[in-house]
Amino acid sequence: MSDDSSIWRAARLGRWLRRRADNVIVVLLSVMFATFIVQIFARYVLNRPVGWSEEVIIAAWLWTVLWGAAFVVSEDEEIRFDIIYSNLSGRIRRVVTVMTGIVLVALYAVSLPASYAYVSFMKVERSAYLHVPLNWLYSIYIIFLVACIVRYGWLVVAAFRGRAPGGDAQS
Predict the structure, then answer these.
(1) pLDDT computed for residue 13 by the predictor
(2) What region, left, alpha or beta, does residue 131 occupy, with left being phi > 0 and alpha being psi -120 to 50 degrees?
(3) Is pTM beyond 0.90 here?
(4) Under a CB-based contact definition with an 8 Å cutoff, are residues 137 and 62 in contact?
(5) Contact call for residues 97 and 162 (beta carbons, < 8 A)
(6) What per-residue confidence (pLDDT) applies to 6?
(7) What are the φ and ψ backbone dihedral angles of 48, each rounded to 5 degrees?
(8) Would you state the pLDDT for residue 9?
(9) Are 71 and 21 in contact (CB under 8 A)?
(10) CA distance 85 to 32
(11) Is the dihedral of CA 48, 52, 54, 57 positive or negative?
(12) What are the C-alpha distances in Å from 91 to residues 139, 140, 152?
């Protein structure tokens, strides 16, 4: 009974975290849209363009793409060679999942120290208009790498246990 309730609580927490990750995307897209409208108004109505708007939009877009790829896009929504993959048997699909998962985890893990070093180094640079340290801007890439390592590690374990990437049991 205790085991079932802890699984239920973990699943509930996972759903709550997923909704919060969706909320972050909504906020980032809203900031991008509002900034874009401000830029249009300032440029074409006031005839006084604002330079900071481009920085805000680029930062929000970068965070939207990497945050979304790390926490919002589900395994079923990811792009893959479905023409080939969907025609494979469940067992071969699991083998492909394990092989690609191990390769991706290894590549992300190998790149993590150098990526962290670069992002840390970027604290010496600041953005042109907002003067935000660039390591803050690029820190999302480290979050993305760690999330992908965990995600693909989880998929490899699930495939070893006989689960397909979509969560269906495969023979």
Answers:
(1) 86
(2) left
(3) no
(4) yes
(5) no
(6) 79
(7) -140, 80
(8) 86
(9) yes
(10) 36
(11) negative
(12) 38, 35, 18
DSSP 124: G
* Alpha carbon distance 102, 95 (integer Å): 11
**CA 148, chain centre distance (Å):** 8
Contact 27, 67 (CB under 8 A): no
Give the mean pLDDT per block of 10 residues along the chain (171 residues). Answer: 74 88 95 96 93 94 94 76 73 86 96 96 92 94 96 90 60 42
Phi, psi (5° rounding) for residue 87? Answer: -90, 0
- Please state the three-class secondary structure of 76-97 as a single string: HHCCCCHHHHCCCCHHHHHHHH
- Residue 13 and residue 96: Cα distance in Å, rounded? 30
The amino acid sitting at 123 is K
The residues, any chain, with a CB within 8 Å of residue 80's CB and separated by 6 or more, are none
Greatest Cα pair distance, the chain, in angstroms, is 67
Per the structure block, which two tokens stand in for 87?
């025609």
How far from 121 is each of 70, 115, 139, 144, CA to CA, in Å? 23, 10, 11, 18
